[in-house]
Amino acid sequence: MAAPFTGGCACGAVRYECSAEPLMMGNCHCRDCQRASGGPFVSIVGVPKEALKITGEVNYHEVTGDSGNPIKRGFCGQCGSRLFGFPSVAPFVGIAAGSLDDPSWYRPAFDIYTSSAQPWAYMNPELAKFPQMPPM
């Protein structure tokens, strides 16, 4: 996959472009991601914050992460599509892989927060597994 890449919400009110290659790609099984997505996990593309250009109005909901630090979840206020996760202490933003214009290049390398993974959710046995957040 080559930068730049683009994506956006379901209704088109929010669009983004990333000018850098992903730093990481993986699946988060934490309860917050499960509740926010309505699914067993969220597939995330981590990119440098400064490489992401967002157009349109993004609404944010702030939660306290497992680390005790705030995380802002960004979503479209018109259609509700979840788009971003901004961990306050990390130098990256997590883009929801389902919001990519071309999600076919997404290749997860790990599953995190497997301690809260649902027993009915399939996890690829070939991916690295971390019961919580891996060391940075």
Question: How is this structure best described in words?
Answer:
The structure is a single chain. The chain has about 140 residues and is mainly beta. It has a single domain, classed as glutathione-dependent formaldehyde- activating enzyme (gfa), CATH 3.90.1590.10. The protein has 1 helix and 11 strands. The chain has one helix spanning about 30-35; strands at about 5-10, 15-20, 25-30, 40-50, 50-55, 60-65, 70-75, 80-85, 90-95, 110, 130. It has an 8-stranded mixed beta sheet with strand order 6-7-8-9-4-3-10-11. A hairpin with a 5-residue loop joins β6 (about 60-65) and β7. The relative contact order is 0.24.
Largest sheet: 8 strands, mixed
CATH homologous superfamily label: glutathione-dependent formaldehyde- activating enzyme (gfa)
| Helix count from the secondary structure assignment | 1
Whole-number tally of structural domains: 1
- Named at the architecture level, the CATH assignment is Alpha-Beta Complex
Report the top-level CATH class.
Alpha Beta
Rg, rounded, reads: 14 Å
The arrangement of helices and strands along the chain is: EEEHEEEEEEEE
Give the low-pLDDT segments. Answer: none
Q: What's the multimeric state?
A: single chain
Main structural class: mainly beta
Global shape: globular
The largest sheet has its strands arranged as 6-7-8-9-4-3-10-11
Helical residue percent band: under 10%
Mean pLDDT: 93
CATH names the topology as glutathione-dependent formaldehyde- activating enzyme (gfa)
- Compute the number of strand runs: 11
The N- and C-terminal alpha carbons lie at a distance of 23 Å
Q: What share of the residues does DSSP label as strand, in percent?
A: 35-45%
